[in-house]
Amino acid sequence: MTRILLLGGTGDALQIARTLRASDVYSLAGIGKVPVDLACAVRVGGFGGAHGLHTYLVNERIGLLIDATHPFAARISANAASACRDAQVRYWALRRAPWQPQAGDDWHMVDNWPQIVSALTRYRRPLFTLGREPLGHLDEIPSDQYWVVRCLESHAGNARASVIGARGPFTIDGERALFASYDIDVIVTKNSGGSATAAKLDVARERGLPVVMTRRPELPPADREFDSPAALLQTLRELAPHR
Ligand code: NAP
């Protein structure tokens, strides 16, 4: 029977984890919630780079690695691809499609923090939905800006920044209320794709607001790529019906 190692930390990964068997392993980095109701084993924390992951794959006799990490978690994906190649373990990846701009959208594409800062010079009240990165720059807020940062962590903010600790999914009505109450004039986000956090883009379009959109990092090719948990699970059932 093929033993699976599932790399997760996303809602999609949790969906897959719920179908795994006791002999399989669900792996988390350790920055979010750890589920306690899964049939499979759960391990938490890094492997120690590609070399450590290679050792784990061999020692634990893993036959298939499923990479369902977030598309911006590029380091673990690179490590997984490299470790699987060296250990001759199959490497599957769940890569949800990126969002695409629609009619009426005003997207400014960026790759890194300096490009974000430069794209924001014309705006006053940005909403950041980038994760924790802006928290490291709260002392650098220009005197004519007020930042709203939404991320998983709670944080006191400061005189020119509010930090909202929240976890998606987010509704369109909730996003409308957030934009209105903070008088947001631009949003800064990353192209995660998926539906759970897409409502902010609908509200930006409704309000005619620009979006500073971080491009996805380059991810390694996989032996098989899937764009949804359902497609991946279907293939798993076809290839190993008695798992
Ligand atoms: P990253 O930069 O690609 O990975 C940093 C290090 O964290 C990796 O080198 C690895 O440590 C460890 N790691 C990451 N995912 C792991 C996993 N599933 N199991 C065991 N170790 C893991 O990742 P990140 O951007 O910091 O994200 C960390 C986790 O949060 C990921 O699992 C990702 O799915 C989830 N997440 C990330 C984002 C995002 O925007 N980046 C959003 C939502 C969820 P070692 O080198 O020691 O093995």
TrEMBL record:
Pathways per UniProt: Cofactor biosynthesis; adenosylcobalamin biosynthesis
Query: Signal sequence: where?
Result: none
GO MF assignments: precorrin-6A reductase activity
Under the heading InterPro entries, the entry gives: Precorrin-6x_reduct
Its GO biological process annotations read: cobalamin biosynthetic process
Keywords for the protein's UniProt record, in alphabetical order:
Cobalamin biosynthesis, Oxidoreductase
User: What PANTHER family does the database record attribute to this sequence?
Assistant: COBALT-PRECORRIN-6A REDUCTASE
Specify the protein name.
Precorrin-6A reductase
Species the sequence originates in: Paraburkholderia rhizosphaerae
Q: What is the lineage of its organism?
A: Bacteria, Pseudomonadati, Pseudomonadota, Betaproteobacteria, Burkholderiales
